[in-house]
What does this fold into?
Amino acid sequence: VRVKKEELAVVKERVRQINEMVEGLRRRLDEAITEKTEVEAQAAKLEEKLRAAEKLVNGLSGENERWGHNVKKLRESTLSIIGDVLLASAFVSYIGPFSATFREDLFKNKWTPMLGSCKIPSTEGIEPLEILTTDSAMAGWKNEGLPADDMSLQNATIITSCARWPLMIDPQLQGSNWIRGRTGGDLVVFTLNTDRWMNRLVNAISMGKIVMIEALGQEIDATLDPLLSRAIIKKGNSKTIELGGDPVDYDDSFKLYLQTKLSNPHFRPEVAAQCTIINFIVTEKGLEDQLLAMVVNVERPELEAEKSELVRRQNEFQVQLAQLEQNLLDALSEADPATILDNKELIKSLEDTKATSNEIAIQREKAKETEATINQQRELYRKVAAEGSTLYFLIISLCFIDHMYQYSLETFTTFFFKAIERTNVKDETRVDVLRQNIRFTIYQWVSRGLFEKHKLIYLSLITFRLMQKKVIDVNYEPAELQFLLQAPIKPNQFSPLDWLPTEAWAKVQSMGALDEFKSFAQNLEKDAPSRFKDWYNELAPEECKLPLDWKRLESMPFKKLLVLRCLRPDRLTIATTNFIRDTLPDGPAFVEMDSKNSFLEILQSSYDDSTPNTPIFFILSPGADPVKDVEKLAKKKGFEAGKNFFQIALGQGQDVVAMERLERGHREGHWVMLQNIHLMPRWLIELEKKLDAFAQDAGGTNPAFRLYLSAEPSNEIPIGILERCIKLTNEPPAGLRANMKRAWTYFPKEEIDDKDAKIRAILFGLSFFHSTVLERRKFGPKGWNMFYPFNIGDLRDSYHVLVKYIESSTSGKIPWDDLTYIFGEIMYGGHIVDDWDRKLCKNYLENMMNNNLLDEIELFPFVEGKNISFRAPPLGGTFEKYYEYIETTITTETPLAYGLHPNAEIGFRTLQCNILFETLMELQPRDTSAEEKEESGGGGSAIRTPMDIVQDTIRQCLDDFDLKGKIFTIDDIRTKITKIGPYQNVFLQECEYMNALLKEIVRSLDECDNGLKGNLTISEQMEQLMDAIGLLRVPATWVKKAYPSKRGLVSWLENLMKRIDQLSIWKDDPETVPKVTYLSRLFNPQSFLTAIKQVVGREHKWELNKVMISTEVTKKQVEEIDQYARDGSYIFGLILEGARWDIQVQQLEESKPKE
It folds into this structure.
């Protein structure tokens, strides 16, 4: 038993040992399994991190190149940041008021080179928008309604970057519309004419709202000064600002935008310091792009819809990509580098970002391809949009001629689309027909509201601009067009030909600088002077061939205009009209616009174009009265005076009545006519507000409502009223034929055809008489001694009298004497106050109002043997026959038609020519690029830019002429005179006058010179001086101190030096009078004539009041006078108009041709 127990114990021990061994092995197994599990888990984790790292690296690999490029740029910018920020700051602070061309010149050609010269580092070729904004920001602005042109983007950049309040020059409302789109419904908008505007502003400041003050004038209300200058008062944590003397809580969220509709405002310097002025005037290229979108939207709406959607998506892509990049950068910057591989959300976001980015990239590539296809199809209509843009920029320049010529972009686009609607052609010629219809429609709309003297200016603007744009094919050089406009005079020239004026020869010499005309002066002077003289003396040289090889100009009509500009400026307006008629597509329709229509027909057409929110505005001229025609139209349309058609002549107390009629008419669909609104300029502000309210209340407007306004031209009429109106003038047209056509078509065709043949014949004679008395006015004192307001009402009333007399006559005889008396003494004679004019009127009628009128009488007086005739047509013709007779028989305009000498038209036609081309020159774009300047003035041309002329004039007057040294020392002159007599008094007075003028010239030019050098700030007066000199006009400040003169600047300065020379001769010997006094070179010639009477009266002891001036014309020339006159004084410089003095026979004779 014991042995067994011992064996059992041994076995148990072994079992224990084995168990321990097994337990050890089991423990080791568990440990190995645990270690294995841990290693496997760690391996899985590392594999997961590896995969995450791969995703992160792959996800960021697309950004690596761009970020690397950005890092490189940032490193480089650390060197150039000073110059870049300086340029950007200057751009935001100073460049806003300027035009696109000037901005580019200032930034690229002035500021950037200046940084290089000052050795300030900057990024080469940097653009301001690259510094100040991003592509995504610009894309967002476009989605908010900002035009896509460069200037608009620059303006938006300035607005979003400036620290001062932005003040937008925004006549087309593009800036304000963008602000509205940008701010949504949170914007508070009002004008300074709005009721209780100050309360609205105070509430907005306190509540931190966004405010836009619209339609500011040049003077901004002084109560806004603390706000504009940001005079904020800090008290602890609160801020206040004083407005109107009361403190207002100021919220930092408050923003202010200012807007003016004025196209060229002159703000006070303080405003420029307080605000950032931004020029939001639409550019021609920008408007072209906008019109292109509009045209395509009408012509190909599906194409434009696709384009708009494409642009919207492109912009959204740009914004979305920027947002994705920002989100990614934010997530990366916030991630812990130690645990970045464990950030599953970041990695998933990165994958999503890359996928979205790739998808957007694919979409953008597809969009670009689609855009290229769409743009190719849209470009077919580019010519139409370019035509519209060109025309708009021409019509908005007309306000520089007259304040009444104001046109809004909204009204322009209305007529632009009317032209498109009226185009029925659908084939491949549609684009060209569209252009012509748009040109015609816009010209018709604008020309109906222009005075007659301005219609040729506007038509010339269109023609010359289309030539410059290569729309119409004309053989010309830009320098030649510039010469035609300027016609510069080469100084110190004297005509070698006795029949050619010195001024004409001086222009010919200047024209010789043009390549085409280098030999013209020699041909004129030496090769064929007699043949040129024959051409010069022609009544209509524009229709005759020039001598020698210059007949080739018949095939180059524009170049022939230059010859006429030099030699026969009196025929240039006619030649220009003919050139336009032959050159402009459908030219006759433009030149003879509305000539076949009566004013009532024109009014009917304008009524068809009007809407309840588009008034018709009659611009009144002497004798014009549109009331009768409006009454006729009202009756035709079923409107009865006093019932639903009301006329109010504005005056004291009538403003309340007018406003009540407007309110009621707007609701009930009445016609309201407000006459002479210029008499109440202050009330017109209320009228403008009321019209704005009507326009916004679209649902409450009765479609039958119409408003008619009439006023004389006045600068007091608000631009807002003028812009929205269809403007009409009712002036007599220019020319006998046009006046006869207007007079004849004034009467209804059916009514005239129903009348007796004798009535038609007498009415034809009356129409001729009416046209004659109107046309004689243009000849000045040679036509009528005074200006009389003859008008169509005189003809209308005369016709009514004629009809009553003839139809009530029982004897069948025509009471010629009665008709002559009524027409000559009452209807037309009622205007006449001068006895000689009354006699002329009576003789015209007595010659015409007799039985011969029914037997083809000669209507032109004193034309026997002069190869011109206009007889009364045969009796019995119809209305149309008479019209055709007028159209075909009156073919030329000549003073012979009025019994005047052919020379009678030289004066007024030359004046017309000068006004035409001076105005065209004034309306030329001021800011031309360097390339354009080289093109128009290079190649040896004598044409100078306005700034060249200013600088040359300053140098000439201050250095060459030494006008400062020419100032007379009056005290020194007085010391040389022992006894001051009448002559000495006159010349001392002349010296004082001359000193005042010379001092003003020297002062103003010296001031201008310092301004150009940067020593003085350019003031408005200096700007006006430079504008006048640049246009070769005598500045207004000089005219005020000077003698009466109509000379141009070059001729005026030459004449000034001659006047100084005459006074200098007398100054050297003041005791004696010059042997010959140039009377026309004195400031006050009458004082010299009075001095003659005083001296002669004293010598002969005559009473001064009984002494009369007697003039004797001698046969001597000035150089032949070698002694003093026995009595009185020799004078020179008198001018005879309307006749000539024959020296040989010592009497008046008929003028020589062109004399």
